## 1
Amino acid sequence: MVRFLRRHSLDKSNSQNHLRQQHESGSGTESDDTEMTEPAGNGGPPLSNGRAPPRSRLARDGPPSDLDIMKEKFAKLLLGEDMSGTGKGVSSALALSNAVTNLAASVFGEHRKLEPMAPDTKERWKKEVGWLLSVTDHIVEFVPTRQTAENGTTMEIMSTAQRRDLQMNIPALRKLDAMLIGYMDNFVDQTEFWYEKGGDNKRDDDKWWMPTVKVPAEGLSEVTRRWLQYQKECVNQVLKAAMAINAQVLVEMEVPEIYIESLPKKGKTSLGDAIYRNITDEEFDPLEFLESVDLSTEHKVLDLKNRIEASTIIWKRKMQTKDTKSSWGSIISFEKREQFEERAETILHLLKLQFPGTPQSQLDISKIQYNRDVGYALLESYSRVLESLAYSVMSRIEDVLEADAAATNLTASEAARRQMEMNMPRKLDAREELEKLNEAPASMTLYDFMGWHFDQDELMRKKEEGTLDEAGEAMLLKKAPSLAPKKFSYVDSLAGGMRSPSARH
């Protein structure tokens, strides 16, 4: 410090002597005067020695470069969102989950119309979500591989490869992402419906913040109406695929101990007497149960989800415990408890179908908040924001169709008849979906949904044995991921909105 002060004082005295000599001689170049009087690039005064102070990153001219943005994002991730650097931030998994959620909110939060995304916004989404997903390229696991030595000896060694679930789900989610962006691009240059401008928006329903849709007095043309229905069904398929992935990831996440400690000891206590009697009744009908429960508001739907999920966790723990003297013990038989759990999961599945935009339950929030698996965090957050975007696009299409029905003075029955006449798939029906669950196999893969119908492991085994035919080789090359997918069950589906965990610390 002393050495610095001495040097500063010497520079100051030398500068004063130099100025005195210039004043006395009347000489001095214009460039010298400019150097001494020109303000610094960041708006601050010049140093006494004529040097400009260092310019901060925020004061640089022009917009920040991609490198600067990437540095800032990954710095926040490394700090766990604790900018003080004291180590009090959240885990890496939660930081990445919040980063994906916040990015989607900033990109899609103001997209409230059926129109293509702005080119710069679309480019920003692709670029920044690619940065965050690049972490998954370095999450690996050991897999056995065959290696042939120079002498022809074949041996089996362990090598690293991208984790199985990430290798299968990340490309699938990227495809769903591209499909959604493409569906929004399809609404370019359409002229048969428009939106009220600014202060003219007088919407008074539960979506008062959304712009009001306007259609011609005679309604939409038949071609446009059919096209909108087709777009809606396409988006609905993306929504169901994103829900399936999100549900499976949430099922794979561990239930936090802090959530288990908050549960009562009996499932009956969590459900309440009335709901418990309905679920444990010998003649249980899930559709009649939902009709008997008040689901008039979003809060009541969420409360029912929380109660049923809590009772499911309690029953699962009781089935897994081996200590009969434990406080979790019960006199109810294993078969009965398993039956109650299946009924509860059926109710949850039907709730997801009827109320796809319901907020995340307490169990989902706890899993996301206390999850430590970075791969699960990225899969869950990415699938959740895609699910939310698909639901939002579907809602905007439904707004246009409702405006068309109002313009043509259609009743509800007439609108349903028109939809059937157009021979288009209808909105998911709870009873039909329940029948499908009873008739369908136990599970279906996401690749079955997207058109990939063969077993990768079987093809790889035949290839190693040398028994793979030409058709199998063609199928192997056509396959996008290189490993067989994990089975997904729509019964386990858990839908959630695009929301970050409410509790951060």
## 2
Amino acid sequence: MGRIISSYAKNRMFFAALSLYDCLLQFPYLKPDSYTYPSLLKACGGLKSVDYGEKIHTHLMKDGFLSNIVIASSLIRCICKVWSFRFRCEGV
């Protein structure tokens, strides 16, 4: 699953990547790993989705992946993309 999500994100098919992530969460024995989360965060940033960003951030905290430097930097990049978009839309 992680490779498919990664391929979707790499090819700018962000909605497909996040939809597959939603399907993945339906099965408790299938969990995203440290290679999947950066792709999910790239998809989230690409769609400028605050809701998915919060959802993924919650899972990162619960699963203990925030100490991974690659995931942490992907999270920061995602937050910057989402918030810069939000400020441009609101005119702040």
